[in-house]
Every structure is written in C-alpha cells, then in structure tokens.
Backbone:
C-alpha cells in the first residue's frame, strides 16, 4: 500500500493557522478565508510554482450555503491557475484524513504528481437555517405573483416559525449529541472523571510545552486579521497554567446529574485551517524537496452510532497497521484525535484489551500495549482546539515533524468522527 511504481506518497510540507476559540481571534473569518490563508502560506513557504499543482482537495464540516465547494473557491480566491481541478470532501472530524488520502490515491493511481490537501472550519460562522414552515412559505411566496398573493403565502406563520435553527452537534440517526455519546462511552467503559481530567490536564501541559520549546511554532503561521490586523500566531485555547484541581471543579455539561464530561475534558469549538503538500516521491526529489515523510498505509472504518459512537479508531488502527505490515510496538509515536478524554481513553483501553480483540475484531490478541511516553506528545485537540476539518492534517503534520526530530521511523495517527466513522494512518519518516 502507499506506492505507485515503487514511488511512495510524500508529505512534503504543511502548515496550519493558529487555532482560535470560537468567537475570538477569527470570529470575522469564514472557513474559506481560513483555508485560503493556510494554502497561500503553504505555497509561499515551499516556493512551489503554482503550475506544478495538479489537484486541490479540501474539506469543511460546518456547511456553507454560499460556498458549496471550498476547494475550488480556494484555487480561485488565491489566484492559482484556473486549470487546477479542485473538489471538497466532508467526513466529519476525519475530513482532512480523507482529503489527504484522496490526493494520495490520485498519486498512486498515476493520474497526478502534486496535490494539496487539508481542511478548514469556522465554528464562529455557523449557518442558521429557516424553519420548514418558513422555508415552505418563502418558496410559496416566490412562486406567487402580486403583493397580495405573496402575503397570502406567508399567512399562517407563527412567531415560532421565524426563529432560525442553528446546526446541532447531534447525530442525525440517534439524536444524541457528541457529548452525550461520549458520556455513554465513559459509563460503559468505566472511564472515571479523574482519569478524564488527568488526561485533559496532560494534553494542556504537553501542548504548552510544545509551544514553549518551539516545536509547535514552526508549522503554525502568523495571521493578520481584520479589522485591526494585529498578529495572531499562537493557539489561544492552550492553558499554560493548567492545574489538575481546576478540572475537578467544573460541572458536567452533557449529563448534569450523573455525568463526567465537562468543558475541561472535551475538545472546544474552534476556528482554524490546515494544509499539506503531497507529492509523488520521485516528483518531490526532482523538484528538490526533502519530504517530511511518507503515507505508509491508511484505513477508514465505521461502527454502529447507536452503540459506542466514537470507537472506530479501535477498528481503524489495527487495519492500518496490518496494511503497513507493522505492529503497535513499531510505532515511535501514536497520535489520537482528542474529541473527548473519555473517547481517547475508551479507544486506548480497547487497543490494550484481549477481550475487545476477540469479541469485536475477531483477533487472538490485543493490538498491543501503549507506551504513554509516545502518545499525543504535543497535546491534542482538547488543548489545541478542534476545527473539525483541519484536525487530521494538523495531526499528520505535527506528528511527522516530531517523528523526524526524534529520529523515529513510524507513527500512527487516528481519529474518530460523527456517524461512527474512524480513520487511521501509518506514517513513515523520511
Ligand atoms: C463542552 C462545551 C459545551 C463547553 O462549552 P463552553 O461552556 O462554551 O466552554 P468554555 O470554554 O466557556 O468553558 C466553560 C468554563 O469552564 C472553564 N474551563 C474550561 N476548560 C478548563 C480547564 N482546562 N481548566 C479550568 N477551567 C476550564 C472555562 O474557563 C469556563 O469558565 P467560566 O465559565 O468561568 O468562564 C463545548 O466546548 C463543546 O460543545 N465541546 C464539544 C465539541 C465536540 O462535540 N467535539 C467533538 C467533535 S468530534
């Protein structure tokens, strides 16, 4: 897997915007604005000639009514050659795994040499939808002639019909929010409040360290945002002064009476974008680039959302490792998307469980035992934030950079997503 005529799929470079808490530094920007910033910065940092780009695949999870194809609007919006074909993907929190894999697959199929992948989301720019009654009435009015006819079509609307409906972080099939689904997982898997809080505290502490010692800054661009155009260069959700005691004081949000999931041990609603430059290995070399690393294998899986919604990484990781012909113990780094501490700990518990392996995966033995010195070493989505479509590429980028810094060979990245979806990717250092 991951090769085309002996050529590997290279991740040549990447960049991301700082991640901003909803309604803060990026509140004036749309996902498209953020995506354009990230892709333009990637091209400027790599000095890639735009004519070399064959394809741009980009993702957005919170839909935009005015921009149905963010990928193409990025091409047009930053004045890239009009001939660059571009399409958008959406796979909830695993969206930029999908955009990266789509470019990788085009390379493996031999149809392109160079592509850009990534994703952006703005939780500050949320589309509000009209109620069904209001939208029916407006469509009716638009088809009717004359002021009286139009008024007639709107007759019968109540004040309630006029209230806009915001999109919910709810599973369509089960009606449960992500947080409620994570509560279910915490309860069924026996993940204690304390374990969740300790994990969240760890995430903030490690992310703060990575910012302090310069490991994070290198791949994060400085943005200048209207109206003041002041530089914004650092994630604004990471708590540099995280203390474990503070987590214990927070009230549960999704099950106020018996729950364990709080604002502290959940990923927050976030704005941000990321982008990766992906190339055929021989093309990268011919253009004089030294890749960050290679995509060795990947897997997408799904579970029944009415069971444990965010467990699919426990299925995707073994599949991606099998496809790479590697074991968990060969991984120098493991990076799990942190939707909730309860979800990470449920998945890592499954990695280490013979029973889960036998009953759910049909395997003799557990995936392996994690060395926590190698897990989410730069923190994760709880501390950094989680602009849904940007997270996968953020994980791939920082993991490859850290893998190189440590002189490691292989890394595993995984993420869970709405719909019971999951992704895993095995990366190989250059
Ligand atoms: C959990 C959630 C509802 C919290 O939203 P919120 O209430 O706006 O969160 P805030 O950041 O305002 O935090 C609430 C409070 O907790 C405090 N807090 C949050 N994290 C903290 C921490 N690590 N340490 C100490 N205090 C913390 C905040 O300071 C704030 O305190 P205040 O009310 O005194 O200002 C929201 O982040 C959410 O919906 N997250 C889930 C997103 C999701 O579904 N992700 C998964 C997708 S796969």
Residues:
């Amino acid at each position: 897997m991951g090769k085309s005529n002996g050529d590997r799929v290279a991740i040549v470079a990447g960049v991301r915007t700082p991640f901003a808490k909803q309604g803060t530094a990026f509140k004036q920007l749309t996902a498209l604005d953020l995506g354009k910033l990230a892709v333009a910065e990637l091209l400027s940092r790599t000095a890639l000639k735009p004519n070399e780009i064959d394809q741009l695949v980009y993702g957005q999870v919170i839909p935009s009514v005015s921009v149905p194809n963010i990928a193409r609007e990025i091409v047009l919006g930053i004045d890239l050659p009009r001939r660059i074909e571009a399409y958008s993907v959406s796979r909830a929190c695993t969206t930029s795994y999908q955009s990266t894999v789509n470019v990788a697959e085009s390379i493996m199929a031999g149809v392109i040499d160079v592509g850009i992948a990534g994703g952006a989301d703005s939780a500050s720019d949320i589309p509000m939808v009209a109620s069904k009654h209001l939208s029916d009435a407006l469509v009716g009015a638009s088809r009717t002639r004359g002021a009286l006819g139009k008024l007639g079509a709107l007759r019968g609307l109540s004040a309630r019909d006029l209230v806009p409906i915001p999109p919910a972080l709810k599973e369509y099939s089960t009606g449960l929010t992500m947080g409620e689904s994570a509560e279910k997982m915490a309860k069924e898997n026996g993940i204690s409040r304390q374990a969740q809080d300790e994990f969240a505290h760890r995430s903030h502490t490690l992310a703060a360290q990575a910012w302090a010692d310069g490991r994070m800054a290198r791949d994060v661009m400085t943005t200048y945002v209207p109206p003041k155009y002041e530089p914004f260069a650092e994630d604004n959700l990471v708590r540099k002064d995280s203390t474990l005691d503070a987590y214990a004081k927070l009230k549960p949000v999704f099950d106020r009476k018996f729950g364990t999931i709080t604002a502290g041990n959940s990923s927050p609603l976030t704005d941000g974008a990321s982008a990766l430059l992906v190339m055929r290995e021989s093309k990268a070399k011919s253009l004089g680039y030294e890749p960050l690393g290679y995509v060795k294998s990947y897997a997408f899986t799904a579970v029944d959302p009415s069971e444990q919604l965010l467990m699919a990484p426990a299925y995707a990781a073994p599949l991606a490792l099998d496809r790479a012909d590697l074991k968990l113990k060969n991984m120098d780094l493991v990076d799990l998307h942190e939707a909730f501490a309860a979800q990470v700990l449920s998945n890592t518990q499954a990695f280490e469980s013979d029973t889960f392996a036998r009953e759910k995966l049909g395997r003799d033995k557990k995936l392996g035992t994690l060395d926590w010195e190698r897990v989410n070493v730069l923190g994760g989505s709880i501390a950094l934030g989680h602009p849904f479509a940007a997270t996968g590429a953020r994980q791939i980028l920082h993991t490859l950079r850290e893998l190189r810094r440590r002189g490691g060979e292989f890394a595993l990245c995984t993420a869970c997503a709405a719909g019971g979806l999951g992704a895993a990717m095995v990366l190989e250092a250059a």
